[in-house]
Amino acid sequence: MQATFVRGVNEARNITTFWFRPEKPISYIAGQFTEIRLPVEQPDNRGDKRWFTLSSSPADELISITTRLDPHRPSAFKQALFALQPGAKLTLAEPMGDFVLPKKKDIPLVFIAGGIGITPIHSMVKWLIDTGEQRDIHLFYAANALEDMVFLDLFENAPITFEPILSNPPKDWKGRTGRLTSDVIAGLPGVKDKALVYISGPEPMVETFHKELQTKGVAQHRLVMDYFPGYTEENI
């Protein structure tokens, strides 16, 4: 379907949220993704379309994606996206994906997000706030620096347990530092027999947690994954 670009909001260093108005009402579940096709004048070998998680809540009037621009090697697609002007037209696919909240509302949830992998979790948490629904959520959000984190106000004020983690923290940082490990996750109460663990971020990060958590006793059916191809753990 066709959609119109409404506005861009700078969220953090090289990270922007793009808001669109679909030509007709669009129905989706928080955490799902869509494919965007842009009119790119001179597309490179990565083409003129990309998959993006919807960072907006289904309760929002508009829909949004939130993404990072690589300042050193931006693709032709990303350059066109970041150059969009209000009123520009583009094409959206119907949202899809199963990285969504479980139907049973009493299941404890552990969210692990690396870098831009926070976007589907933002959609879910914002949806819960919009609807007044309560869930037992423990969110770990890892990034290189504070300037790379987005949506902090929402997470800090949401009825969840929120733990941001920085590899390169400022001097006055009081939160976790370094790298989040599978030992920390596997040691959480109920994670091996009650909770679902959602892992979202660069593919190497997701694969590492998926493998290590299973070796530490977390069953595969309790792991829900969302890969962000094209990102590495160095640029989360």
How does this model look, in words?
The chain has 2 domains: 2-92, Translation factors (Elongation Factor Tu (Ef-tu), domain 3, Beta Barrel); 109-235, Rossmann fold. α3 links the parallel β8 and β9 (161-166). The strands form 2 sheets. Strands 4-3-6-1-2-5 form a 6-stranded antiparallel beta sheet, with no helix packed on it. It is built from 5 helices and 12 strands. With 236 residues, the chain is α/β, with parallel strands linked by helices. The two termini are 31 Å apart. The protein is globular and about 50 Å long. The chain has helices spanning 76-82, 119-131, 152-157, 182-186, 203-215; strands at 2-12, 15-22, 33-37, 49-53, 63-68, 89-92, 109-114, 137-143, 161-166, 176-177, 196-202, 223-228. The longest helix has 13 residues, at 119-131.
Could you give the topology of this structure?
Elements: E1 2-12, E2 15-22, E3 33-37, E4 49-53, E5 63-68, H1 76-82, E6 89-92, E7 109-114, H2 119-131, E8 137-143, H3 152-157, E9 161-166, E10 176-177, H4 182-186, E11 196-202, H5 203-215, E12 223-228
Parallel strand pairs: 7-8, 7-11, 8-9, 9-10, 11-12
Antiparallel strand pairs: 1-2, 1-6, 2-5, 3-4, 3-6
Task: Please outline what is shown here.
With 236 residues, this protein is of the alpha/beta class. The chain folds into two domains: 2-92, Elongation Factor Tu (Ef-tu), domain 3, CATH 2.40.30; 109-235, Nucleotide-binding domain of ferredoxin-NADP reductase (FNR) module (Rossmann fold), CATH 3.40.50. The protein has helices spanning 76-82, 119-131, 152-157, 182-186, 203-215, and strands at 2-12, 15-22, 33-37, 49-53, 63-68, 89-92, 109-114, 137-143, 161-166, 176-177, 196-202, 223-228.
